[in-house]
Amino acid sequence: MSYNAPNARCLTPDSAPKRDEVDVSEHKKHFTATATELAARKCNIGALYRKTIYLDCDLVVNLDIAELWHIDVNDCCMAGVFDVFSASLPDEALLDWINGCSVKTFINSGVLVMNLKNIRRHGNLFQNSMAWIERHVHLMRYSDQDVLNNLFYRSIKLIDERFNRNNPRSKHELPDSILHTPGGSKTWKISGNPAQRFYWHYYLKTAWGEEKSCDELVDIMFNASFLPEDADLCGNA
Question: What pLDDT sits at residue 71?
Fold first, then answer.
């Protein structure tokens, strides 16, 4: 059954969306707007770049990023954290299988360690991605995540959950982790997520936080519908 009980449904291959019901151009437009395209283009500029880390923008990195960098990806194309949400839902797992992905190694694409040298051996990543979208656009749910899991399902390495901890529920999950809030409830909004304080703490240390006055910071935080507990609005969090 699907995740949202009011709209519960049982998905089968016959009841899956039909390709002629989906606007392929809109999905291509969305895919090309993602940072995955940037990583794809890096894969095709020669041997200068052999490895890269990709991070979504809705993350708080609360560990030494060198830990992620030193993960061994010599024998694979990319490493990521298993997508528990997708695997826990029959609908999602079935779609993964229909799309040609491995349900056992389906990773969340918010944090990736990419072996660009190995990826290049599979051909032009961007062109291969566009070709995959043409064939599977009617079954796509997570854009680049679906594409990458399909193209490299034989060459994915699973890494510890703490490198992409989705929606942390307690303060015990915050240390030595990369905190991720996928979906609509972000760290800078009211969601009760304990990573909120970390987000604003580090925001105030960036150029965006340092260059703003106290009044501007107040406006930003109220517009984000969240004012962190005990925050110093003059940039001294």
Answer: 97
Distance of alpha carbon 143 from alpha carbon 101, whole angstroms: 14
Find the helix or strand (DSSP H, E) in which 180 lies.
strand 177-180
Domain co-membership, 203 together with 95: no
In this prediction, residue 228 carries a pLDDT of 46
Please indicate, yes or no, if residue 6 is contained in any of the structural domains. no
Mention every residue, 6+ apart, whose C-beta is less than 8 A from residue 11. 2, 90, 91, 94, 95
Query: How many structural domains compose the chain?
Result: 2
70 and 147 housed in the same domain: yes
Q: Please report whether residue 174 resides in a domain.
A: no
- Taking residue 97's Cβ as centre, other Cβ atoms within 10 Å add up to 13
Task: Let me know if residue 175 belongs to a domain.
Answer: no
Compute the distance between CA of residue 123 and CA of residue 157 in angstroms, rounded to an integer.
Answer: 20
Helix or strand or coil: residue 136? helix
The neighbour count for residue 81, using CB atoms within 10 Å, is 22
Longest dimension (CA), the chain: 58
Q: Degrees (nearest 5) of the Cα angle 68, 159, 79?
A: 70
Q: Give the model's pLDDT for residue 145.
A: 86
The predicted structure's pLDDT at residue 129: 83
- Claim to verify: residue 154 and residue 188 sit in the same structural domain: no
Q: Do 53 and 144 fall within a single domain?
A: yes
Question: For the segment 36-94, what is each residue's pLDDT rounded down to a tens digit?
Answer: 555 555 555 556 778 989 998 888 899 999 999 999 999 999 999 998 877 666 666 66
pLDDT under 50: residue ranges of the chain: 1-17, 19, 227-237
Q: Domain range spanning residue 38? A: 18-162
Same domain, 45 and 145: yes
Q: Which residue intervals of 152-213 are DSSP H helices? A: 196-203, 207-210
